[in-house]
């Protein structure tokens, strides 16, 4: 049967069977609205345009299996369209219907045994109101959140409280009706402690809190494990203390059930979710060592005298060390987001009622006049209304040279005003600013899953049960069949369970994507997700739109040719300018600028009609003026002079665009304009050719003009005379030839072609259209970034392969060695403590390998 949403062919029986076993990755549940649960088909009903996508923080995950359990819980909520939970970033990207409340999502995850930390959205901005950001101590669960919310609702003047269970409250209120102190008092009376915390970084706080907790747990367990280790070898260390075995029991018990408490919790959560994870392996392995030692201690006649308290304690201590270091390293991998968040200034100076005052960044509203002095950061996006200066936009676009700004120019929030005083009108505030959009794109990309990660997810879903089976089999073989002692067989069982590391598999792909997308963002390249990152190295063909991509899109008139003896060049230019006056095409700007330079008085045409890809028809003085291609002249049945072809050919062979001018019933002149290529276009094309890519130029120009321009840039393949609406069709033809195609354009008139290509690359210096179009956005108008994007993606994907290879190789070699496969040949048996150290090291090495990407340098710049 076919999936009713995405149209994929689905074997329903297999799908139902797979989902019952918890294998939701069997088919499209990750990529469409159709969710299959408990043998039933469940389609998410959501109105078009009413869904939204948010990124949440998730705490309590220990491996990829945890992420899968959370995804399944989220998909059970009616209205959840897509849920991607990323173990490495500890974030969930959830797309859901507006009918779904964030509390529903939090409760669903909490029932699974994990914690969803909601990232508060930008509150509604109401003129005449103020906002306070608080940290409410103790508001860390849905019940407490409800208590605080009810207390605030009872206070008149509070417009909208935005509360989240990470102890954060954003409250907008009317200062004429309620004071800040009254709000604080209301929260205190509800039994909670409010503290002002403007500008708090939620993610940073949650992560640092978790790292501090892990560090403390490791240090205490290490201190307690040391005497356990010493007491395990009384002869070596000359232990004379008669009660040392009871001391071992005491210290080992604290390590086992305090230090390892969250492993037990994780194992119970997995059991409740009818699955198994890394915590299950650790809990089983260490519990076997601990409880066997307890039996040895109290019933030595039955179980011998060999204690394994040191094994259980040191294993837990090593794993805690690994988890702590892993969290620290993972934090470094997400530094790109932290840097972006740190760019946002906290306050802004605005002019209200003729008075300049400094307010919180959250209180700036669209329409405010913002004042920026030299050296200050621009707080929000806007349009300059007064003053002139140069602005450093390198932190947003990656462009190192300051950009001149004057009245009418746009400014971007978080950039730095260098010299003059600027006043600008705020146009985009809060989550609508360019910086906020960049953070959102990078955050979603880092939380997304590349297709190759599905392999790791599938392996992870089988991993723990398989390892458990191998551990039991090794124990049975050594004890029952080979005849080794019980402690020997137990040692192999523990070593197998402990050395197995699904974490390395779970971290292999997302950590590389996290660092790769962050590195790209630092260079002004926004990659929208792991799929684009994986697809780019496979590109065979790069198609460039000509105007505003390869060229500046600022043509100038170079030649004016009258075709009637009684006409002058000024008259030809005037007629052309009258026709172009209502147009926004770059050629229209060229004609009008030329007329302005000659001080020609350009009047309005009576009628005006643009024919995309062909030209313009206007009515002036009771007669038609037609400006455009020869085809348009012929279609309009105008008389064309016989000697025109030679002149047209000469101009076009020089790479100029020739416009035919028709007036009344005759073609009376030619106007030629020439665009100039962008500074680094030729260099970028050469670099792509050196990478083995086929480079294609697509344009509406005729064949001769297009080839002349392409020849200057070193492009061999040209698709000429292509109308804007035909560009997507041309891309489709290339795809049908089996090519993997990237389309590079400005996102204005080539959006369908960008969407049609395997990879759409929008180059637009941070414009709205470019931000919305394509899977890759180049923030600055430098085509060398196309090369960098492809090269960085290739490098990132190489790191992913290295990580996966290491993760698979480590487990493939480590588990058999732990099971004792070398013992009959070499006498070597892996110590469980060494297995624990190896397991901790495997995760750190995967993340560390990804962090090496921070030293990446673009090959072309």
How would you portray this structure in words?
The chain is of the alpha+beta class and 861 residues long. It has 32 helices and 32 strands. A hairpin with a 3-residue loop joins strand 8 and strand 9 (168-173). Helix 8 runs antiparallel to helix 10, helix 10 packs antiparallel against helix 12 and helix 16 packs antiparallel against helix 18 (502-522). The longest helix is centred in the C-terminal third of the chain and has 35 residues, at 784-818.
Could you name the ranges where pLDDT drops below 50 across 5 or more consecutive residues? 1-10, 19-49, 120-125
User: Any idea what the radius of gyration is?
Assistant: 34 Å
> Structural class given helices, strands, pairing?
alpha+beta
What is the general shape? elongated
Helix count, per DSSP?
32
**Mean of all residue-level pLDDT scores:** 83
Ends distance:
51 Å
Q: Work out the number of β strands.
A: 32
**Strand line-up of the largest beta sheet:** 20-32-31-30-21-28-29
Helix content: 40-55%
